Amino acid sequence: ITLWVEPVITFAALARLHLVHGWPKERLGMQPKGWAFDLAAHETGNDQPPRILGEVKKTVPELEHLKDDLMSLSSGAPTGTVSNNSAKKWQALLATKPRLIWLVGPNEHAYVYSPSFSSNSCFLQEVNYSSLAFSAA
User: Fold this and answer.
1) Parallel/antiparallel/unpaired status of strands 110-118 and 100-104
2) Sign of the C-alpha dihedral computed for residues 57, 96, 132 and 47 taken in this order
3) pTM above 0.70, yes or no
4) How far is CA 84 from the centre of its chain?
5) Using CA atoms, how far apart are residues 9 and 19, in angstroms rounded to an integer?
6) What is the dihedral of CA 78, 60, 85, 112, to 10 degrees?
7) Following DSSP, what letter does each residue of 72-90 receive, concatenated?
8) What is the pLDDT of residues 9-24, one digit of tens each?
9) Beta partners for 29?
10) What distance in Å separates the CA atoms of residue 37 and residue 28, rounded to the nearest whole number?
11) Contact 6, 66 (CB under 8 A)
């Protein structure tokens, strides 16, 4: 039997959004449109851009690598300087324009960012976990 860790962490993250942060279950989903991210939380219907896009990594080093790549892109680095996976996430972020990005790893290791968008760029600012609350809308 093989158990993939990433889906387990994804289920735990969705449960945390529901149980800790008060999100209604029907507003949560996995593998949002385009499949670049692992989870999404929608303020309104699923046909609207998500308020939160979440990406799960199975190890802390993978999570740190993604965080570093996204912060580099946020500082203006070209997409060719990061991994293809990180570039895909960046392009999805620019296209979707969520209010929050939640990077989640094992043992509740995580980062929450509030993106600010302008033309074809984005600046990520780390914010408090309380921003994940459904009531923070």
Assistant:
1) antiparallel
2) negative
3) yes
4) 17
5) 15
6) -70
7) HHHTT--GGGS-HHHHHHH
8) 999 999 999 999 999 9
9) 40
10) 13
11) no
